[in-house]
Automatic annotation (TrEMBL):
Translocase recorded as keyword: no
Gene3D superfamilies recorded: 3.30.1130.10
PANTHER family per UniProt: DIHYDRONEOPTERIN ALDOLASE 1-RELATED
UniProt keyword annotation of Lyase present: yes
Xref: InterPro entries: 4HFCP_synth (IPR007565), Dihydroneopterin_aldolase (IPR006156), FolB_dom (IPR006157), GTP-CH-I_C/QueF (IPR043133)
EC number: 4.1.2.25, 4.2.3.153
UniProt GO molecular function: dihydroneopterin aldolase activity
UniProt keyword list: Folate biosynthesis, Lyase, Schiff base
The protein's name: 4-(hydroxymethyl)-2-furancarboxaldehyde-phosphate synthase
Source organism per UniProt: Nitratireductor aestuarii
Pathway linked to the protein: Cofactor biosynthesis; tetrahydrofolate biosynthesis; 2-amino-4-hydroxy-6-hydroxymethyl-7,8-dihydropteridine diphosphate from 7,8-dihydroneopterin triphosphate: step 3/4
Positions of the Dihydroneopterin aldolase/epimerase domain: 254-361
Family to which this protein belongs: Belongs to the DHNA family.
Enzyme class of the recorded protein, top EC level: lyase
Length: 369
């Protein structure tokens, strides 16, 4: 299940977030950047106000990578009674010593490390976080005015980060000026939570959060549904395409055309260890879910197709264009609303003309992939 974390600046906003049914109330001072902390007393007030209705996290401030200072701040905020502490780790050699300094405290409070997508996050810190008992890790952006997470780090790199953290049993969160169209792109990566501030505000990150804005984000992150004691919804399925229509409205086609990427491909030895340009054309036939599409729940985003291609291309050398086409088709059909997909893969640098393959694949009856 992917949880919705909302960053709030005090009791009033915490109440709004509670009404919006977010999953985690995160405390920070947005006016002081990605890691601006509220005074400990203000954090305590929110912890008392929430009174266990939702988990509460707090950031510990814009800390220099000084182990003593980091530990002191963490102890101060741990004493407020929050469920999670968020500690920002800058891309500096002392970050490792700061992690070690928190090892003892991590036995009594859940600590989540925050790494920045715009500072080349250091994957080598992940095992160290585990060794020192950290609960989780999240990617955020330090600079909020220059675009969101997926503009700072390509989707395949975010996917690799999530997969690596999960393989180490760390809880993993993603944030960074996330907007509605980012959500269907990030849900398939199955992070443990997605974090928001800017998208919840009426006019900019420093303005107040707004109930309607929270609601529109909440709608895009499936909540755990348990009806009559039935098994919880399959979030992997929901995450890939939201709820399929109950009545048959027919299909539409979405497409990505002339998407060219350099990649390692080819069965010849001279094609190894170098990239060549490959062009992708994909058309997906998708079930319609409404006559009145209004938000990301109602569409299958073409970004998901491009994200899949980028991730497949980044995964390493592929010998055959046929293998590549099958992988792309399979990725697109992973979305339960896609009933048929057409994929053309063309190698553009092989011969005087382009060469490649076209395939068409259809969802098998009853298959959820
Ligand atoms: O922890 C999450 C952040 O508060 C997200 O803030 P943002 O959406 O403004 O980047």
């Amino acid at each position: 299940m992917v949880r919705l974390l909302a960053s709030v600046n005090g009791v009033n906003e915490a109440e709004t977030a509670l009404l919006g049914n977010v999953d985690i109330i995160d405390l920070k001072n947005p006016a002081d950047g990605a890691l601006g902390a509220l005074p400990p007393q203000a954090v305590r007030e929110v912890v008392d106000f929430i009174a266990g209705q939702k988990p509460v996290s707090a950031v510990c401030g814009n800390l220099a990578m000084d182990p003593g200072q980091v530990l002191k701040a963490a102890e101060t905020y741990a004493a407020t009674g929050v469920d999670y502490l968020k500690i920002g780790l800058l891309r500096e050699p002392e970050a490792a010593a700061c992690i070690r300094a928190l090892g003892e405290l991590a036995k009594s409070v859940k600590i989540v490390a925050v790494l920045f997508a715009d500072q080349e996050p250091d994957h080598e810190l992940l095992p160290l976080l585990v060794e020192n008992g950290f609960h989780g890790v999240m990617l955020d952006t330090a600079e909020k005015s220059t675009g969101g997470l997926l503009r700072k780090l390509s989707v395949d790199r975010v996917a690799r980060f999530v997969a690596q953290a999960k393989a180490l049993q760390l809880k993993v969160g993603l944030a960074g000026s996330l907007e509605a169209p980012d959500i269907p792109r990030l849900l398939p990566l199955e992070p443990d939570f997605l974090g928001f501030r800017s998208a919840l505000c009426t006019s900019g990150r420093d303005s107040a959060i707004d109930e309607d804005a929270i609601r529109s984000i909440r709608l895009l992150i499936p909540e755990e549904v348990k009806a009559n004691g039935a098994a919880p919804a399959d979030f992997r399925l929901l995450a890939r395409g939201y709820t399929p229509a109950e009545v048959d409205l027919g299909t539409d086609k979405i497409f990505v055309r002339e998407f060219v990427l350099p990649m390692e491909i080819g069965a010849y030895s001279h094609e190894r260890g170098r990239t060549q340009k490959v062009r992708f054309d994909v058309t997906a036939e998708v079930q319609r879910v409404t006559d009145n599409p209004q938000d990301m729940r109602h569409v299958v985003s073409y970004d998901i197709i491009m994200d899949g291609i980028r991730t497949i291309v980044a995964s390493g050398h592929i010998d055959l264009a046929e293998t590549l086409a099958e992988k792309v088709a399979s990725h697109v059909l992973a979305n339960p609303r896609v009933v048929r997909v057409f994929v053309r893969v063309e190698k553009l640098e092989v011969a005087p003309a382009s060469v490649g393959v076209e395939i068409e694949r259809v969802r098998q009856e009853g298959s959820t992939r």
